[in-house]
Design brief:
The chain has 2 domains: 84 residues, Conserved hypothetical protein from pyrococcus furiosus pfu- 392566-001, ParB domain (Alpha-Beta Complex), CATH 3.90.1530; 103 residues, no CATH class. The protein contains 11 helices and 4 strands.
């Protein structure tokens, strides 16, 4: 059910405290995509809000229709149960939702992820760049696709000489250095990866890459990747 009759809804003092930052973030998303279908505000038959007060306020401020669902029974028990057990949407939930709403960059991201058999976080790092934050995704921002994303993904796939080539820390390290290296340096790195053990963080990988590229080079020919 949907309505713009905001006055019929009632807030419960037993519900969680309103977080203005959450309302603002939701408003930014709704400005682009409207009220996300499938996430209704849950209310009692008296229209006391059980779940979705932040979504309600964001939609009200923007003057858009609110999708809602009426639940029967003890509303206080249901509200406490929802607040204590429901998990927030995962990053994948957001990407899938935006892709289903035909947001082009997210549809292409999912195809890219499937093609290269990557985790979502790794696909994001390659496809949009390592500087993209999860909040950018959650807000539904229209993100610029990295021009050489496919080249980087192909390079990572071809690094199969090591078993960890699909590890997120390794991938972030490759993404951060790829544009700094020449083709011959990239080939040298790939050929010598076998000597690099699986490391605990991306920065350690970058340091190891730098050591490989600079081995045997005069000081004035050495590169800095950090």
């Amino acid at each position: 059910m949907k309505t713009k009759n905001y006055s019929k809804f009632v807030f419960s003092k037993e519900n969680r405290e309103i977080k203005p930052k959450t309302v603002m973030s939701l408003k930014e998303s709704m400005k682009k995509f409207g009220f996300i279908t499938g996430r209704p505000v849950l209310v009692t038959k008296e229209f006391v809000i059980i779940d979705g007060q932040h979504r309600f306020l964001a939609a009200k401020d923007l003057g858009i229709e609110i999708e809602f669902e009426i639940l029967e029974g003890n509303y206080l028990e249901k509200m406490i149960h929802l607040n204590s057990t429901q998990s927030n949407w995962s990053l994948e939930d957001y990407v899938l939702s935006y892709a289903n709403q035909n947001v082009d960059c997210y549809r292409k991201l999912l195809k890219f992820q499937e093609k290269y058999e990557l985790s979502l976080s790794s696909a994001i790092a390659i496809f949009f760049g390592a500087g993209v934050k999860s909040q950018n995704i959650r807000n539904g921002e229209i993100l610029k696709i990295r021009a050489n994303a496919e080249q980087i993904a192909d390079y990572i796939t071809n690094c199969s000489v090591v078993a960890y080539n699909k590890d997120h820390k390794f991938i972030r390290a490759i993404v951060s250095v790829y544009d700094k290296l020449t083709k011959s340096q990239l080939n040298k790195l790939k050929s010598k990866l076998i000597i690099v053990p699986k490391l605990s963080n991306s920065q350690d990988f970058v340091t190891a890459f730098e050591n490989i590229i600079n081995k045997g080079k005069r000081l004035d020919y050495k590169v800095s990747l950090n």
